[in-house]
Write a structure and sequence with these properties.
heterodimer, A: 245 residues, alpha/beta, Rossmann fold, six-stranded mixed β-sheet, 7 helices, disordered C terminus, B: 200 residues
């Protein structure tokens, strides 16, 4: 029953109009992502990788082309169905963590479950389990401002997993973190990918990501420059950043 | 799928109340200013109405010009009060674009976003107009007492003044919710990607 391809983008273009300037952020991208893969979308800033991320995540409308998430055409969904999709199918992680500042870690994690209609008790229990899993069991009652960047990102990861999504979408998840914390986050994402067989798709220019990715999409100038398997990559990477501890 | 969508639509009102109450608390200073605007508008309305009714009760009469001027002044003061609410809610929306985008990513419906902002505004409206009605009434009653002495107490139009106070409070809440409609609607309609891209 479950489709093999969790995400399919077919000839996706995105045009932004800023004043009198037109910008083609995506110029016809076709990618297929299989269930359970760990994908990195790599590319320099301005290459269109965040735009592609938004398209895959149903966060923005395509100008042309089709995006299928779990074989459902995103463009056909109405507002309710789109909210449902974002709530149940996809977990989002952002560079700037995007926790709700007035809520505790636990409340942040349980919020998607509230939107999904889970009962309060159930949500509390699951939220605590998730925080436990990302190693923040003791910090459940802290507000985001009382947590370090790495801890906030781990809360965000717990939140992304709240409704057992099929896909975790991460936009530069290590962009605001130092090297060591960034590595921890990557390890955590990889662990979730393996243990819970959740598909992880991450837009990044963090070369540390290469190591754990099954495939890498290199984006340049709004197009897929090349797609690499990890097998072909191992030889080249080694210690890319010379990051001995 | 349909059933769970329906479930999602109806449940989180309590959650919306909680979130909006909290965001008022965390931005207490500005909430006070907005509430103050509503307070002044309603206090003014209430004091004019109380004064008119008490004066009428002790036997004063007003000509048409005086009445027209009163209506004009009340209208202006309420308009200013609504504009204040719109302005303050627009600001509340703008500074929370990212939060709105995030909530939509987590599965919040547009309606939930609208609820949050309308509730927030309704809370402020309720506090502001209740205070405004009571204080506007109290001050003018004292003034009238000083002016006419205990004659006022014997002739005091309790019924119509109470009715006016309730109406004024209801009007205050209605106006502040109305003032929040456009900002809330705008916030709820944003595509999540756009909402989160905004830098402030």
């Amino acid at each position: 029953m479950a489709a093999e391809n969790i995400v399919r983008a077919i000839d996706v273009t995105k045009r932004y109009v800023m004043g009198s300037v037109e910008l083609m952020a995506l110029k016809g991208i076709t990618v297929t992502i299989r269930r359970g893969e760990y994908i990195s979308i790599m590319g320099p800033s301005g290459s269109g990788k965040s735009t592609l991320f938004n398209m895959i995540g149903g966060l923005d409308r395509v100008t042309d082309g089709k995006v299928y998430i779990d074989e459902v055409d995103v463009a056909q969904l109405d507002a309710y169905e789109l909210a449902w999709l974002r709530c149940r199918k996809i977990g989002y992680i952002f560079q700037t963590f995007n926790l709700i500042p007035v809520m505790t870690a636990l409340e942040n994690v349980t919020l998607p479950m509230v939107f999904a209609g889970t009962t309060v008790d159930e949500a509390m229990e699951k939220g605590l389990n998730l925080l436990e899993m990302v190693g923040l069991g003791e910090r459940a009652m802290h507000k985001p401002a009382e947590l370090s960047g790495g801890q906030q990102q781990r809360v965000a990861i717990a939140r992304a997993l709240a409704n057992d999504p099929a896909i975790v979408l991460a936009d530069e998840p290590t962009g605001n973190l130092d090297l060591k914390t960034g590595k921890e986050i990557i390890t955590l994402l990889k662990r979730l990918n393996q243990e819970q067989s959740v598909t992880v798709i991450s837009a990044t220019h963090d070369l540390k990501m290469l190591d754990v990715s099954d495939r890498i999409f290199w984006i340049r100038d709004g197009m897929v420059e090349r797609v690499e398997d990890r097998a072909s990559l191992d030889l080249k990477v080694g210690t890319v950043e010379g990051e001995e501890e | 799928m349909d059933q769970s969508i329906a479930k999602q639509i109806h449940l989180p009102l309590r959650e919306a109340v909680k979130i909006s109450a909290r965001s008022i608390r965390s931005r207490f200073g500005r909430a006070c200013i907005t509430t103050g605007g509503i307070f002044l508008g309603i206090a003014f309305l209430m004091s004019v109405v109380t004064w008119t009714q008490v004066e009428a009760a002790v036997g004063e009469t007003f000509d048409a010009t005086a009445r027209a001027r009163q209506v004009w002044m009340i209208t202006i003061s309420l308009l200013v009060c609504v504009l204040g609410v719109v302005n303050s809610m627009l600001m509340a929306v703008t500074e929370r674009y990212k939060e709105i985008g995030t909530m939509k990513c987590l599965g919040a419906l547009n309606r939930f976003i609208v609820e949050i902002f309308l509730l927030e505004s309704a809370f402020m409206g309720l506090v502001g107009s209740a205070l405004g009605a009571v204080i506007g009434w109290g001050v003018i009653t004292l003034v009238e007492l000083a002016k006419h002495g205990s004659r006022v107490l014997a002739l005091y139009p309790w019924g119509s003044v109470t009715a006016a106070a309730l109406l004024a409070a209801a009007l205050g809440v209605t106006l502040s919710v109305l003032g929040a409609v456009y900002p809330a609607y705008r916030a709820s309609r944003m595509v999540p990607a756009d909402a989160m891209r905004v830098e402030i």
